[in-house]
Amino acid sequence: MKMETKKRQKQLFGILYACLAASVVAELLVPLLSPPLSHEQAHAAFVWQEIPGFSAIYGFVGCILIIVVSKALGHRWLQKEVNYYD
Amino acid sequence: MTEWLHPGLVFILGAFLIPVLKGRWKKAYLLLLPLVALLDLSLMSEGTFWSFPLSDYVLTFGSVDKLSLVFAYVFVIASFCMTLYALHVKEDGQHVAAFLYVGSALGVVFAGDLFSLYLFWEIMAWASLFLIWYRKTKASSEAGFRYILVHLFGGVCLLAGIILHVQNTGTADFRVFDWGLGSGYLASYFILAGFLINAAVPPLHAWLADAYPEATVTGAVFLTAFTTKTAVYVLIRGFPHVELLIWLGAVMAVYGVVYAVLENDARRVLAYALISQGGYMVAGVGIGTELALNGSTAHALCCVLYTALLFMGAGVVLETTGRSKFTELSDLGGLYKFMPLTFWLYMIGAFSISGFPLFSGFVSKTMIVESAAASHLPLVWLMLEGAAIGTFVVAGLKVPYLTWFAETKTKKEQAEEAAEVVKEKEAPKNMLAAMGVTAFLCVFIGVYPQALYGLLPHAVEYVPYAAGHVVGMSQLLLFTFVGFWLLRRMLHGTPTISLDTDWFYRKAGKRFLWFCEKPLLDFADALDRVLKDLTNSFVWFSKNPTAATRIMLLSLAVVVERSFNPTANTQTQTQTQTQTRTRTRYEQDLEELRRLYGEPAHRVAIGTGVLLVLLFFSFYLLIYLTHGVLWV
Fold this sequence. Notes:
- The structure holds two protein chains of two kinds.
- Chain A has three helices and one strand.
- Chain A is mainly alpha-helical.
- The relative contact order of chain A is 0.06.
- Helices cover 73% and strands 3% of the residues of chain B.
- In chain B, β1 and β2 (57-64) form a beta hairpin.
- In chain B, α4 (92-110) packs parallel to α9 (217-238) and α15 packs across α18.
């Protein structure tokens, strides 16, 4: 049973890595796949959108930041014991 | 009158028949009402109906245009799914409250003037209150009280604004309100405050995260859809392109996510995620371009469906286990083995709210984010994208992970506890069916967005499935998962609550009450005593004014005497003796007078009084007879 779960987990992580890689590779193919629809879409609205893999970096860093900062705020200030208002 | 039927009326009048019906008939009737309303909507054409003059104003109950129609459609469709979800509930009161709530929300949507808007706004607040109170716990009763107090405050703000607006402009029609800085816009400020409270915009949002998780299992599902979304609707109609809203919305989107990371209760996490989603819509209203307003409308509609689905999932867990706190759920050792279907249906909602391609959130959320880019708002864009990451972390990963998979005890302990707690595998069939229908709609909109876009108030040129969008969103969410997996242990529930702006009325409110009860009441008591003394002295004085005056003068004489001739050691013997004599005389008089004063005064017989009155009347009669009248 345990071996099975381990194996399954390994498989799932294999799929995840494949998806991660695919999403990064796909970005390189975007200009080939879709001709720009309008003048606005042809140019990125912000400088950072020119960085390759920006979404990936922002997703990863943003996730870490949100969890760490929220938890820090919670521990230092916001979180109280359950009967705080009683 | 017959050319148009108000769909809200179908629900409101229909609700009164619910307690009369029994068994299968009741269930059929409950499902029939939303279908009748849907039929009514599909036959409806744009225009103004049901206008009734009321003194100088006109009440309009049926103002139908593309915007009101699209909101009405999704409200009615959602109400069908939610009624199906709540079909097993035995208490008629819950159904009646829910139907009044849906009906009044439709009333707001079709209101063409501010008075009828206010009327339905208030019915909505009261009807929804009962969806919280029917949980019948101490926590729900208290949260319900706080909920209605906040909404009454919001209602008063709205009413004050409406009255000012009507006074300023002379019309009660519901149109775009004037906006600017200065006292001339006071009416708009009040109305906006009323709207923002219902939209749960921080810092006026705490009622939502406080009350929704305390509502009944099925009530919470209804609550997620109507109050906040009607608020978004009236914001779109009344305050488009108000810059303040862009920033409020962007902050709201991030704010909700931060709290959702901290919370321990599944439904409270989802409530904060709901607030965060509202942030996108409010920001979209503020940006105010056609793309942004379309985005806000579309996102409100998608949000109704997927938050309902998420709350349905969390509700099923609460219904079958009686638990919604992660710290308690993880003791069961993973509910996935008991309710895989619920998990997967929940995940469709989770993918939708996170904005995965092919799910509904993707086709609406990206519209608003894109409109921020088109209007060159870099910070807003970053905040909204950041909130998308956070939404996926909390609603898409934290809630399902901690509800269906987390394990904290040994296998044996978990199995024992689960056997005790989990009453049924999977949810009642009607709940699963409702989740299935809602999930289908979420996927349908995601796969075939044209169905939604065709209903939007402005023509849509936006193409959601441009390769750039799909790849960008996929990268964002996939790499978010990597971050989550690394830090997943940090997200485990802790038995805590998080302070929010409700602190001001829950904690500071208590202190205010203490201030009223202690210092303020002491002050009032002191004032009361002084006044009583004053009255008593007047009573005393009026008993015998002459003697009282003499007593007062004598007391004064004694005091003056004492202060001018203090009995000092330096004084001579004779002086002291004379002074003692005079003083004694004054004091003796005073004592005598005081003694006499206490005794009852001389009284006349009652007949004397009557005689005096009769004399007075005779005198009056004489004057009347000679002069005709006494006063001219």
